[in-house]
């Protein structure tokens, strides 16, 4: 297999329940175990590989601490629009990430929020309004917000386009040589954002 160069972006997904693995893993190629996946995203005529780490809300990841979070280019916070508890826990997940990852510029580190499961029960069991979620995102520095249905594929590609865009703005691009495997190295690039998705 010929080697190629592309940009690798590390994305951490946090929330009370898994987003990538349990909901639409058929769209992804598993690389190492079930909790580390890659997704290729085309953005501005370039190909990027998102290295996606999804905790699926599992406590076993808490023991990984700094090693798990280190080098992240973007953090995706996911909640279930049908569960107020999962929404209320977004702040805990955000704080946990900032503590563990210790980004050089925490105020401007790129986050993206996904309100998932908008398809459930035709939207009738929804308890968190889009307005409430957008207000929370605005209060945390205008975090980009998407309502998604991972199961139905609603807004999933759009969300990952925004995630790639945000991750790119988090620091200088790093071209990584990828032969047949992915280098899981870390980076301590300065971070900044300001993406309007």
From TrEMBL:
Molecular function terms from GO: GTP binding; GTPase activity
Primary localization: membrane
Annotated localization: Cell membrane
Topology within the bilayer: Lipid-anchor
Listed GO biological process terms: protein transport
Pfam families from the UniProt entry: Ras
GO cellular component: plasma membrane; vacuolar membrane
Swiss-Prot/TrEMBL keywords: GTP-binding, Lipoprotein, Membrane, Methylation, Nucleotide-binding, Prenylation, Protein transport, Transport
Similarity comment: Belongs to the small GTPase superfamily. Rab family.
Function according to Swiss-Prot or TrEMBL: Protein transport. Probably involved in vesicular traffic.
Protein name: Ras-related protein Rab7
């Amino acid at each position: 297999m010929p080697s190629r160069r592309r940009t690798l972006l590390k994305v951490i997904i946090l929330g009370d329940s898994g987003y990538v693995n349990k909901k639409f893993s058929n769209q992804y190629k598993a690389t190492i175990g079930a909790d580390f996946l890659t997704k290729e995203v085309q953005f501005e005529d370039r190909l990027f590989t998102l290295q996606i780490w999804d905790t699926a809300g599992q406590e076993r990841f808490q023991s990984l601490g700094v090693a798990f979070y280190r080098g992240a280019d973007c953090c995706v916070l996911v909640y279930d629009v049908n569960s107020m508890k999962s929404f209320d826990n977004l702040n805990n997940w955000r704080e946990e990430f900032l503590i563990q990852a210790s980004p050089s510029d925490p105020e401007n580190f790129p986050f993206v929020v996904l309100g998932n499961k908008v398809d459930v029960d035709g939207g009738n069991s929804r308890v968190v309004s889009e307005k409430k979620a957008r207000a929370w995102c605005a209060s945390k520095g205008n975090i980009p917000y998407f309502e998604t249905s991972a199961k139905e594929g609603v807004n999933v590609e759009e969300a990952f386009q925004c995630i790639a865009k945000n991750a790119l703005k988090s620091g200088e691009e790093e071209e990584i040589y990828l032969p047949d495997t992915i280098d899981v190295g870390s980076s301590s690039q300065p971070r900044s954002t300001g993406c309007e998705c």
